[in-house]
Design a protein that fits this description.
heterotrimer, A mainly alpha, B mainly alpha, C alpha/beta, A: ABC transporter involved in vitamin B12 uptake, BtuC, two-stranded antiparallel ribbon, globular, B: Arc Repressor Mutant, subunit A, 2 domains
Chain lengths: ~290, ~425, ~260
């Protein structure tokens, strides 16, 4: 295995762990589709930040673009409460509109920014090893994206560790949380802020849409296997790594998008775990909730 | 400007076919989307829209050419597979519906992206045009594509027309539809198939990524203008068609531009305008209603003050300066003069120099408010056993919204009482006679 | 009929609470005594849960105020515990019995501090009291309805509060659990704590509670159970709604009136 492969897998793993840690809470709050909406809706923020800063190098554009994700959360609430629009439609209308604006901005300013539709869809993780940080003497330290991913992971781990109890209580029992003085609204917005921030930071590597998969699929697989939140978070890390490694191998074999392959593998792992569990247990099916 | 004129003259036969095709596609998905919306399954549409991508890719791999019929078949199969997968996950695991949707959506899309990039990198010359499925390209809608997609759209519209009654019922109350003996399961199956079909046709113009907007947004916008399903469907179709037209135009003037985002932006603007300005439900409309209620309340409170002062001094038609009014009750000084002016215009007050007095009509209105106030106080103390010092605040609000029917009901229940809990006389008018 | 409690622990003053702008409770005005086991009783939709949610600051008040121990809620939050309805949470949640009971200790912890050995000790004691100590590592998804309710009770006990609001703790539990819960509540009140319980079973109410509050969109009666639990007052509570009140409530919702007017 080449060094490039190690870099790519490592970067992908770090990003997917960040996404998975937050995604676990989204899943338990039944807000997976809000995560989906945020991941789409930060796009115009990213494009505008690119236009202003002139490149995607600037770390400072991340909070700026991420604020759009928080705005999305607010808009969904606003349309739901103020205009009385049902929640599912509020989510659907908000993120498609913002995403469309983002794509238009990319098309209009195609000549001025180094961003295209492909990058939006599945990022450019293959180029991670090419963009490196060097010391003043010209020594290569490592790929920039890897350090961004590492920094992001540190921030997310800090967030989840420091806010663990508040996140746990406000997710499991919001009424009890509010009654014991924990601000449910504040922690909701903090979580959405973290999701936005992570989406923007991971966007370059995996693309907006595939961030959604990393938010949802590894935690969902972990959720199947355990009844303990801590273990769920641990398993999420494991599945994030397995998906990234297996995705890279698959992408190389097929000569396709690495991000697409990572998601394919994450999905494959989910199916594997789920079907194995079904076969092993053969427990009576719980009450049916048909979707159609 | 020349572009605009050239486009809308429809002299270019290509323009005609692209416009016709786009209108049909966007309108038909808006129609089907109305039911998705009413059944509160908007995000299911989102998932289906993303999930057709691997089908499109696989169909291309299979046939090696960009054949519309193959594409539709492939997309249909993967769309259906996605719906089935979501059903199975929710039914046979502890995973909840929203996670199942997000999971299936992103995994199918990821697989689709992998297939698409694989096809691209394998260097097949015929693959150009596959990309237009991602963000839509209305201009590509010519020749055989137009006929195939157009025919599917027509099938959709006809099917919705045939089963309108049944769809309306299961959207409103599925359990009730079941008790009527309707084949709810099969109807659901049909509606889901139609949704998949709508997605499959719409992606040519809008693209996979933004297709869900065509299902959700026109219906959401239409909901704000009507309470009837038939009208809602027509409006949604109209809004959809309008945005489709915009997409066709963009395709005409800027062929390199993807049309999907433009269509979605247009329909989103329509929706957001509806959320704000639609009569009855819009935010601005409701705000305006609130304002006018506030005005009414202020005016009624002034008439009430005049009435109460008159009652105390046994002179209802005394003219009083603004200071006297302010001394009686803390009215907001800023809006005091405006309210008095409105009352004069309505004929409830007469202005004399720098003082105001009640007109006979104003006296009647003031009396009516005081009557309702005291009736409600009495109701609260009799039926809710509230102490007399606890009934006033509530009556201050209720006096302004009590309808004549409820007032008559109160009078009947309490048998035309004479005094309120504070022993003040309840002032009856000419018409308040006991039958 | 309304009895005033001597040195009241809870005071509702002219409380009107709306759900989605529609008043669910009108002008409730009452005081509740310390050290009593108090039942809130009334038909479905009477506003029983609304009353205790309003007391815990979970719903905005249209008018009036609530005083707990003569103070605002925020000043005495640590002395008050709330037990939501069992169905209000997702029992598939990945947590153990101990995790849930420890939540009762969270309010006292800062952002950085972790639950101490003493917190765990208190949580374990609470589990023992409800007879669930042997289940402490059990996943909550595997509990029966009665066991879930005991866990919720243990979490409340772990808060070591002086005042407890409980939403339907006896709903859907087996007879053994019912007896166990009742015994714990009685122990609490005999040690001077106040327990306020939303309850919908008339049969058992007379024997469970010292004091009852009869509610049906408005306060019908509040007082010692012997005085208030009369056929006439129960008839008034359960004998149909006040239709005028319901219709005016609907008007308030339609006209979007929030709170009291100021001028």
């Amino acid at each position: 295995m080449t060094m490039d492969a190690v870099y790519i897998i490592l970067t992908a793993t770090l990003f997917s762990i960040s996404c998975g840690l937050l995604g676990a809470f989204l899943l338990l709050r039944r807000m997976a589709m809000v995560g989906d909406a945020i991941a789409h809706a930060v796009l115009p923020g990213i494009v505008i930040a690119f236009l202003i800063s002139g490149s995607r190098e600037s770390v400072w554009m991340i909070p700026g673009a991420a604020s759009l994700g928080v705005l999305t959360t607010f808009l969904i609430e606003f349309f739901h409460r103020r205009a009385g629009l049902q929640t599912d439609a509020a989510i659907g209308v908000t993120f498609t509109a913002l995403f469309a604006v983002g794509i238009i901005l990319i098309s209009v300013f195609a000549g001025q920014i180094d961003l295209d539709q492909d990058c939006v869809l599945y990022g450019e993780i293959a180029y991670v090893p090419l963009d490196v940080w060097m010391t003043a003497s010209g020594e290569v330290i490592g790929p920039k994206a890897l350090f961004i991913a590492l920094g992001l992971l540190v921030l997310n781990v800090l967030f989840v560790v420091l806010g663990y109890r508040q996140l746990l209580v406000s997710t499991f029992d919001p009424a009890f949380a509010a009654a014991s003085g924990i601000s449910v609204v504040l922690w909701n917005y903090l979580l959405m802020g973290a999701v936005s921030f992570t989406t923007v930071a991971a966007f370059n590597s995996v693309g907006a849409i595939l961030v959604v998969a990393l938010l949802v699929v590894p935690p969902a697989t972990a959720y199947l296997l355990t009844h303990s939140l801590k273990r769920m978070l641990g398993l999420t890390v494991l599945f994030a790594f397995l998906s990234s490694a297996c995705g890279y191998v698959l992408a190389v074999a097929l000569d396709g998008s690495i991000a697409g392959a990572i998601v394919t593998c994450a999905g494959g792992l989910f199916v594997l775990v789920w079907v194995t569990q079904l076969l092993l247990r053969r427990k009576p099916a719980k009450e049916l909730h048909p979707l159609t | 400007m020349d572009n605009l004129r050239a486009f809308f003259s429809f002299s270019d036969p290509n323009v005609v076919s692209v416009v016709l095709g786009t209108l049909l596609l966007t309108a038909s998905s808006a129609v089907v989307g109305t039911f998705t919306f009413l059944r509160k399954k908007a995000l299911l549409g989102d998932a289906i829209a993303h999930a057709v991508l691997p089908g499109v890719g696989a169909a291309f791999l299979w046939s090696g050419v960009k054949d519309p019929l193959m594409m539709i078949a492939g997309a249909f199969v993967s769309g259906w597979l996605a719906v089935w997968a979501m059903d199975q996950i929710v039914a046979h695991s502890k995973i909840k519906e929203d996670t199942a949707i997000a999971l299936v959506l992103s995994v199918f899309f990821g697989v689709g992206i992998l297939l698409l990039t694989y096809i691209q990198h394998s260097g097949n010359a015929a693959q150009t045009g596959l990309e237009s499925f991602l963000f839509g390209k209305a201009a590509a809608l010519v020749g055989r594509d137009l006929w195939v997609f157009g025919a599917v759209a027509l099938v959709l519209l006809v099917a919705v027309g045939l089963f309108f009654k049944e769809f309306q019922l299961i959207a409103f109350d599925e359990a009730y539809a079941r008790t009527l003996g309707l084949p709810v399961g099969r109807l659901n199956l049909l509606l889901t198939s139609l949704t998949v079909l709508a997605v499959v046709t719409g992606i040519q113009a809008v693209g996979v990524v933004l297709m869900s907007a065509m299902l959700i947004t026109p219906a959401a916008a239409a909901r704000y203008w009507t309470d009837r399903v038939q009208q809602m469907i027509l409006l949604a179709a109209g809004f959809g068609a309008l945005s489709g037209l915009a997409g066709a135009y963009v395709s005409y003037v800027a062929p390199a531009m993807p049309t999907g985002p433009w269509i979605v932006v247009v329909i989103s603007v329509v929706a957001i305008l509806s959320f704000f300005f639609a009569p009855g439900r819009g935010i601005v409309y409701r705000y305006w209603q609130q304002e006018s209620l506030r005005h009414d309340i202020l005016e009624e409170n002034m008439l009430k003050a005049f009435y109460q002062m008159g009652e105390q001094e046994e002179d209802f038609f005394a003219s009083r300066p603004a200071e006297e009014l302010l001394a009686w009750r803390k009215f907001p000084p800023a809006s005091l003069k405006d309210a008095l002016r409105r009352l004069v215009r309505k004929g409830d007050m007469v202005r004399k120099n720098d003082a105001w007095q009640l007109s006979p009509a104003g006296l009647e209105r003031g009396r009516s408010i005081v009557k309702k106030h005291r009736l409600w106080e009495l109701y609260l103390s009799r039926y809710l056993q509230l102490a007399p010092d606890h009934v006033h605040d509530d009556a201050e609000t209720i006096e302004h919204i009590l309808t004549p029917e409820l007032e008559a009901e109160l009078l009947r229940m309490m048998d035309y009482p004479d005094l309120d809990p504070h022993d003040a006389v309840i002032p009856y008018g000419e018409k308040d006679k006991k039958e | 009929m309304k009895f005033t409690a001597e040195n009241p622990v809870v005071e509702f003053h002219d409380l009107t609470v709306a759900y989605h702008r529609k008043p669910a409770l009108w002008n409730v005005d009452l005081t509740l005594p310390a050290g009593a086991l108090i039942g809130i009783i009334g038909p479905n939709g009477a506003g029983k849960s609304t009353l205790i949610k309003a007391a815990m600051g979970l719903l905005p008040l249209s008018s009036g105020y609530v005083r707990l121990f003569g103070a605002e809620l925020d000043a005495v939050r640590r002395r008050v515990s709330y037990v939501p309805q069992r169905e209000s949470v997702d029992w598939d949640f990945p947590a153990s019995v101990m995790d849930v009971v420890l939540m009762g200790r969270y309010a006292g912890l800062g952002l950085l501090k972790r639950p101490s050995a003493q917190d765990r000790e208190i949580a374990l004691n609470s589990l023992e009291k409800v007879g669930m100590a042997g289940f402490r590592n059990r996943q909550i998804a595997q509990l029966s309805g009665g066991q879930q309710q005991r866990v919720f009770l243990a979490r409340a006990l772990a808060q070591e509060a002086d005042l407890y609001f409980m939403d339907e703790p006896f709903a859907g539990v087996d007879a053994a659990t019912e007896a166990a819960i009742l015994e714990i509540l009685q122990e609490l009140t005999s040690s001077g704590k106040t327990v306020i319980v939303v309850h919908h079973d008339l049969q058992s109410a007379a024997s469970f509670f010292h004091w009852v509050v009869l509610l049906n969109m408005r306060l019908v009666a509040s007082g010692p159970v012997d005085e208030v639990f009369t056929a006439a007052l129960l008839q008034e509570t359960y004998g149909g709604r006040l239709t005028v009140l319901a219709e005016v409530g609907e008007l308030v919702r339609k006209r979007q009136i929030s709170g009291r007017e100021k001028y």
